[in-house]
Amino acid sequence: MTQAEFEARIVGMQDTLYRVSATLLPQMCDREDAIQECVYRALIKRERLRNDAAMRAWVVRILINECYQVMRRRKREFPVETLPEGEVEAGADLEVRQTLMALPPALRLPVELHYIEGYKIEEIARMLRVPSGTVKSRLSRARKAMRETWDERGLVRT
Prior knowledge:
Blueprint: H1 3-12, H2 14-24, H3 28-44, H4 55-75, H5 94-102, H6 105-116, H7 121-128, H8 132-153
Helix pairs in contact: 2-3, 2-4, 2-6, 3-4, 4-7, 5-8, 6-8, 7-8
């Protein structure tokens, strides 16, 4: 794959990269930093990509690592103000997005990757470096937690 083709595919992934970073990072500036570093690292290390078909998963894995790096840096900082709630995308169901953002990141990320981005469980397991059974149980626990939240609020989801 040429550099131009690689860059075109990265640009085509920008919505996915934004959504995945929004799942882990509440602040827009952190998301932008993680995405920028992800793209930079992917361009530098593109020769390491063995299978062009696996590029999306490879880039998402780089992004997840960058998001975790930003989270580690943030942990060492003492914020003066409280962090804002996660932003809601235009056209998104507000209750669903709020409930999703209330989940811990370990449950939120598999939900985002599976239901919103459309990755298969095996792909998510490779990206997160956990067994596929762990991904399945996290999806199950996330669905259960979301269901309980909706029941408490009196919302009916079918």
